[in-house]
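Hi P.,

Sorry for the delay on this. The queue was packed all week, but I finally got your sequence through. Input first:
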Amino acid sequence: MPTTTHPLRTEKVIIGEPEVVEDGGAVESSDAWLSLKAAAIALQGLQVEDGSIPDAVHHPAASEHVAAIIAAIATLAPQFPTDEAYLAASIADFEKWRAQAFGVPDFLDSLVAFQPQRDRVDGIRHLVVFPMYTQNGTRSRFVEATLVETIWPEFISRLEQEYTNRLFVSLRLVDFTPGYDTNSAVLFPETVSMREVPPFTWGAIFQDREAARYRRVVRAAAEITKLDLPPAAARMLDDRALTEQTFVMWDLIHDRTHMRGDLPFDPFMIKQRMPYFLYSLEELRCDLTAFRECVAIERRLQDRVDAGAPLDAAEMAMLEHATLVQYAVIFDRIFRFAITGTRVRNYDGVGGQLLFAWLHQRGVLHWTDTALTFDWEEVPAAVVALGDAIDELYWKSIDRPKTTHWLAAYDLVRSTLEPHPASAWARGLGDDVLAGAPKGFTDAVRDDEFPLSMFYEALEKKMRPVIASTAGIRADDA
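Then the structure:
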């Protein structure tokens, strides 16, 4: 089995094999990890939503649990040499929290010390412990602990030289506390409880969870819709690693797209309240950019193959995964995104509905005789056309007032999706709203501005138990 020596490590790491403790067992089954995990879960039962433990009667027990966490981190730290500074800072932050009578936790120092983007080596592991909320999980800033493993194959390392994204970290969940026994598939620094917000230098996505959800949902949806999957797409459903690496490629390009291109002034739309379909278009824009770039990568590398030029192993993997990303974007968007979650301002849902309807109305997706089919030769051009339409909307936005941009974005979505019949936006906003503050525009948007079509209403009923079953899913569960 191949080995590598990481420049910050003193021992050999066998890629793909678990970290081990001194007794030869895997970290996730070690007494130290199990003790840490149990103590974190016990602390969660004492914490209130902001992460503090205000009832002094619980402080003795909390002190015992924190002592157990500190002891476990100290025991496990030698197994994570790249996290030496972070784990030392974590111990200090826990000690400080205990000394300050368990007020609102402040783990800024350990967060700043945690820099996983510096060690993007396939198979390298991290021990992560923070008081934090988990996106799509819990809003409470409880102490959560995870063991994670980096997914960074050679072809991704090569790809990142072209699609540079120094902040992007791709991870696999090994074990975790209940905050991640949810739909959460990200680890973001802004979720940590801290006294002030530092410049963020990384963001992590659990591609194993995304891939597992994809495999389970697409397998069920293909059966329900009688979809004959292309051979390459079908192969993903039976190959965990293949699907995980496909999602790494997708997310690497998606993530960097948020800050590239002709953009509105605030592309992340974090600091302003706006109609939720704007978020739909931003997320879809990034996905469709990943799709477009993978079409270009596939064509470029395939042209070399057709010309008789040899590809090395990384280029062959890149060619294979560029094709698979295109299937993943389409199927994840139309089968999972469109029907996951409630209909209350579900911007991912609207994005999935928009892609499906766009392809259907352009005659490359068909629902005939209760079966779903695609004209695969025509699909790439149709998907890229939707991406181009969103890009043009963004390009024009720089010359428009904000609310005029919002109205133009609504027209783009409405040109494909039918709005709710009671929609004030669809009827035309009154002069009192149009002449007023932006808040009036946003308040006029219905929670379910673009309801599910008849196709999706029927599909959602059949897929509901499958979607629900993906909460907390692990890589091996799919």
